[in-house]
Amino acid sequence: MKHYPKFYTIRKGLGLSVLAFSILISSLTAPMAVQAGGKMDLMQEMEDRKSLPVQSNEVENWPQGPQVGAQSAIIMEANTGTILYSKNIHEKLYPASTTKILTCLIASEKASLDEMVTFSQEAVFSIPRGSSNMGMDVGQALTMEEALYGILVGSANETANAVAEHIGGSIEGFAEMMNQKAKELGCMNSNFMNPSGLHDENHYTSAYDLAIIARSFFRNELLARMSGTPTRHFEPTETQPDDFILRTHHKLVTGEYSYDGIVGGKTGYTNDARQTLVTCAERNGMRLICVVMREESPNQFTDTMDLLNYGFSNFSMVNVFENETKYNIDNADFFQTNNDIFGSSKPILSLDKESCIILPRTASFEDTASSISYETEGEKQIARIDYTYQGVYVGSASINLAENAFSSYEFSEAGETSARTETEEEKGPIFINIKKVLILILIIAGVLILLFTGKSFIQNYSFGQKNSLFQRKRRMRKRGRRTRRRTSCPEVPRYRGTDSDPL
């Protein structure tokens, strides 16, 4: 049974009387023709929106998507971020309660599931009477886990307020955190004023921004599971005395509209926003996020099914590792060898085997264009290859530094070597940045030339100096020997005899 706050219970009798009287007065003063006319006007607006241009249908050789009655709609593949369908995806619109996926995403990052969330006076009484709630009273408390279920299954506005106060200190403080998180995720046309999505002229987002937020939201398996829960039973506790069940309004989650592969999602509605819906479904490895904004019930659900069918039927995942040949180096031995002094070497660089892109089923991998970016995030990621088809981004592949790339052996403290056990893996393409390698080779060559030139100059200079000194010393030694002979052994004139000398 639906549980309401105690201040509703206290005045239950009076409230029912006032409600009955209001209905009676309304039935007498508001002609049925006017009401029917208003409904017809809304339906006509929906029909008119079907003629709005679908930007993805204007891409050459791109599968033609359905004409839906939503003002704005998008299909995004969650793993790659590829946009499969786009209709006015950057238009600023009111998100209503689909806001709550951002609220819960921040809560999951900033708090643990066992933290207690206490309901303040402002959290309970700042929401409009009759708006979506789970009947919490001032001073009651839930664990953060139960609070998140209350927000995602029951779309409880007072619970969103309590969580915001618990994490941000106030609703206004939490709104600042929401806008900061949206900016970090890459949202371009969003501004959030509250955690629930209750109408505010300055509270808006776009289908593209909601899809980006949902992409991060559905990476969290706990949040995904919560948003895919049809009903949640809340049992009495010391801080919450009531026993009640909440049911989601998402009819693809409940199965009222049967659809295979539904992961989860979030509904939203206000008079100004009309129907909004965020949904995630998964088939054959593709996880699609669908967002429709400003639609009329029940078409938010039928639009979503049509768009998901379009995505799953016309697109498929393509493994980059199994198809990429453009960046393969023919002589892979430059970066890997089958045998070296350390045994069998592994590649220095390798392409991530799990990287995939999303392509129309009518296209092939060879139809894509690619470019390399060196702005990477991971420590072992050296570069990233981005792929496009007909100018549309379809995914990327990571080039990583291979583990154990520098040695196939480990050395123990005792100096003994032991071979690493390697699994037989298929070795993929080897990638290098040719420009950087050539620059490195030129630098090394320049350094070697300078070293050899310097060494030669030093050797020649030293030899010349030594040779000159040796010659001077040799001349001085010769001059010294001649001087000594003159002074110690004076030359004596030789006597020549004659015939007259006596014998």
What does this structure look like?
- There is one protein chain.
- The chain is built from 13 helices and 17 strands.
- It is an alpha+beta fold and about 500 residues long.
- The protein is elongated.
- Residues about 1-35, about 330-345, about 405-430 and about 495-503 have low confidence and may be disordered.
In short:
Helices cover 37% and strands 19% of the residues.
Tell me the layout of helices and strands:
Blueprint: H1 6-10, H2 12-29, H3 32-49, E1 72-77, E2 83-87, H4 100-110, E3 116-118, H5 121-125, E4 141-143, H6 144-152, H7 157-168, H8 171-185, H9 207-217, H10 221-227, E5 231-234, E6 244-247, H11 251-254, E7 262-270, E8 274-283, E9 286-295, H12 299-314, E10 315-319, E11 349-351, E12 356-360, E13 369-373, E14 381-389, E15 392-401, E16 409-411, E17 417-419, H13 434-488
Antiparallel strand pairs: 1-2, 1-9, 3-4, 5-6, 7-8, 8-9, 10-12, 11-15, 13-14, 14-15, 16-17
Major β-sheet annotation: 5 strands, antiparallel
Overall number of strands? 17
H-E order: HHHEEHEHEHHHHHEEHEEEHEEEEEEEEH
**Sheet/helix structural class:** alpha+beta
Biggest sheet strand order reads 2-1-9-8-7
**Approximately how much beta-strand content do the residues carry?**
15-25%
Helical content stands at 25-40%
Q: Give the uncertain stretches in residue-range form.
A: 1-34, 329-344, 405-428, 494-503
Q: Figure out the total of helices.
A: 13
- The whole-number mean of residue pLDDT values reads 83
Instruction: Give the end-to-end Cα distance, rounded to a whole number of Å.
Output: 169 Å
Computed Rg = 41 Å
Shape: elongated
